[in-house]
């Protein structure tokens, strides 16, 4: 990259940051902070499912994922490599995958991996447009499903049902999630679903045949756990 190109990039960065800030303010006025609680779980309230979609799609334009893309790819790849799994040639689906950082980590280990997201951005070779409440993949077509975005769910039971549908028998669901409100966690502005603790988070998945096989502490990108769930 030439000196002139670097200078142009540096000059434009403050304007992009300002644009993201203004966009965030507008969205906060539009969607607010109203939540409904169901026992140990809570959901952000929306006037319609379309409002939920609009809210979730907006995150890509209001965040800079540059450093995260490098650091999280390395951290996740290292965590996956420690599991006693031969990842080569497995079919992996990463749901709510944003720009595809987690997809890259699985590809690094030899998986056949693809991601879906409501807003994957332009020319994303790792992630296609899709909704994890209604997965456009055949039944029993995946060996592994990964997500670290359950806090962006509208209907957690619908997500669990769809993941169970696309996984093969004895397939693996990997959930990475923050510890919850019991340990000081709280949802951010773009989150639509939250839990008091991780025991309650995995409970809806048991309804669809999942059982927990391992829970591994993680520290990046936030304190929490990688939870391994097997489909019976």
Strands of the largest sheet, in order across it? 5-4-3-6-7-10-9
Distance between the termini: 52 Å
Count of helical stretches: 7
| Shape estimate | globular
**Briefly, what CATH class of the largest domain?**
Alpha Beta
- Provide the domain count: 2
Q: Which structural class matches the secondary elements? A: alpha/beta
Please provide a written account of the structure.
The structure is a single chain. The protein has 7 helices and 10 strands. The chain is an alpha/beta fold. It folds into 2 domains: 1-31; 34-231, Vaccinia Virus protein VP39 (Rossmann fold, 3-Layer(aba) Sandwich). A 7-stranded mixed β-sheet has the order 5-4-3-6-7-10-9, with helices on both faces. It is globular and about 45 Å long.
Topology:
Elements (H helix, E strand, L loop, with lengths): L2 H29 L3 E4 L2 E4 L4 H9 L1 H4 L3 H17 L8 E5 L5 H8 L3 E6 L9 E3 L12 E6 L8 H11 E12 L14 E3 L2 H9 L3 E9 L5 E8 L1
Parallel strand pairs: 3-4, 3-6, 4-5, 6-7
Antiparallel strand pairs: 1-2, 2-8, 7-10, 9-10
Characteristics:
232 residues; alpha/beta; Rossmann fold; 2 domains; 7 helices; 38% helix; 26% strand; disordered N terminus
């Amino acid at each position: 990259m030439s000196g002139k190109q670097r200078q142009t990039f540096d000059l434009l960065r403050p304007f992009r940051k300002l644009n993201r800030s203004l966009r965030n303010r507008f969205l906060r006025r539009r969607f607010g902070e109203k939540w409904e609680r169901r026992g140990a779980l809570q959901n952000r309230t929306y006037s319609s499912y379309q409002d939920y979609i609009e809210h979730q799609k907006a995150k890509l334009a209001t965040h800079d994922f540059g450093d995260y893309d490098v650091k999280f790819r390395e951290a996740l790849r290292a965590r996956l490599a420690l599991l006693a799994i031969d990842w080569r040639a497995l079919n992996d689906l990463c749901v709510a995958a944003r720009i595809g950082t987690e997809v890259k980590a699985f590809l690094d280990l030899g998986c056949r991996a693809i991601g879906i997201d409501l807003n994957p951005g332009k020319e994303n070779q790792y992630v296609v447009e899709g909704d994890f409440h209604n997965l456009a993949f055949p039944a029993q077509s995946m060996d592994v499903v990964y997500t670290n975005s359950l806090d962006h769910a509208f209907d957690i039971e619908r997500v669990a049902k769809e993941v169970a549908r696309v996984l093969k028998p004895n397939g693996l669901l990997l959930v990475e999630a923050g510890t919850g409100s019991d340990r000081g966690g709280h949802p951010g502005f773009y989150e639509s679903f939250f839990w008091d603790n991780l025991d309650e988070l995995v409970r809806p998945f048991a309804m669809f045949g999942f059982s927990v096989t391992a829970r591994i502490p993680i520290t990046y990108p936030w304190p929490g756990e990688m939870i391994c769930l097997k489909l019976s």
